[in-house]
Amino acid sequence: SQTIHQWPATLVQPVGSPLSLECTVEGTSNPNLYWYRQAAGRGLQLLFYSVGIGQISSEVPQNLSASRPQDRQFILSSKKLLLSDSGFYLCAWSSANTEAFFGQGTRLTVV
Amino acid sequence: GQQVMQIPQYQHVQEGEDFTTYCNSSTTLSNIQWYKQRPGGHPVFLIQLVKSGEVKKQKRLTFQFGEAKKNSSLHITATQTTDVGTYFCAGPFGYGGSQGNLIFGKGTKLSVKP
């Protein structure tokens, strides 16, 4: 069966520090991969999605970037975090035209 | 740009009352999906609607997809405290209706008073 792993679960980082969140999927090939951000009590904002290795589409201009070095690995990065980067970051995967499966999420607090 | 609008943003009901959330897309969708997020959790898939005018039921939950495939609704009959959470609709805006660009509505947060 398919599983998605996302870590860490919580993270507290100082302003200006770098960020790296990793997400891996098991049990499927060539999944669509997504990074969403959810501010406290708000909706899901699509940040990046990828339909294949090295293919990244950005939905929102910001100081974040994403990479897909392997078929089932999706990484969210930042060189310098801002206070406004705080939020709940969710990784998800889907196959073509099927539902999305979410990881447990990373709660990031930038201080 | 591609948008999925969802109303209301919040809904407070007494246990036993009905609840409905509405979703509208800026463009025609190949399918629409509904998710539930419990407090502190991650979104979990509920259902996918594909056909124009489709209606699906899951126990007390009824999902509808509009004839033009641009709107949808979720109706819960006789809410229970276990229904608490945020309900999201989502639509794929990828090329040719592919899943690549999955956009979520802002969600409707449901609270149920026992």
Structure commentary:
The complex is a heterodimer of chains A (111) and B (114). Chain A is mainly beta. In chain A, 0% of the residues lie in helices and 59% in strands. Chain A has no helices and 11 strands. In chain A, the strands form 2 sheets. In chain A, strands 2, 4, 5, 6, 9, 10 and 11 form a 7-stranded mixed sheet that branches. Chain A is globular. The mean pLDDT of chain A is 92. By secondary structure, chain B is mainly beta. Chain B is built from no helices and 11 strands. Chain B has strands spanning 4-7, 10-14, 19-25, 32-37, 44-49, 55-58, 61-65, 71-76, 85-92, 102-104, 108-113. In chain B, strands 2, 4, 5, 9, 10 and 11 form a 6-stranded mixed sheet that branches. Chain B has a 5-stranded antiparallel sheet with strand order 1-3-8-7-6, with no helix packed on it. In chain B, strand 4 (32-37) and strand 5 form a beta hairpin. The N and C termini of chain B lie far apart (41 Å). Classes of the chains: A mainly beta (111), B mainly beta (114).
Q: What features would you highlight for this structure?
A:
heterodimer; A: 111 residues; mainly beta; seven-stranded mixed β-sheet; 59% strand; B: mainly beta; six-stranded mixed β-sheet; five-stranded antiparallel β-sheet; 0% helix
Summarize the structure.
The complex is a heterodimer of chains A (111) and B (114). By secondary structure, chain A is mainly β. Chain A is 0% helix and 59% strand.
Q: Helix segment count of chain B?
A: 0
Main sheet of chain A, how many strands, which sense, barrel? 7 strands, mixed
Beta-strand percentage of chain B?
over 45%
Query: Looking at the chains present, what oligomeric state does this protein adopt?
Result: heterodimer
Shape category of chain B: globular
**Helix content percent band of chain A:** under 10%
Structural class of chain A: mainly beta
Helix/sheet category of chain B = mainly beta
Largest sheet of chain B: 6 strands, mixed
* Anisotropy-based shape of chain A: globular
The total count of strands of chain B amounts to 11
Distance between the termini of chain B: 41 Å
Mean model confidence by pLDDT of chain A: 92
Q: For the largest interface in this structure, which chains are involved and how many residues does each contribute? A: A-B, 26 and 26 residues
**Chain-averaged pLDDT of chain B:** 92
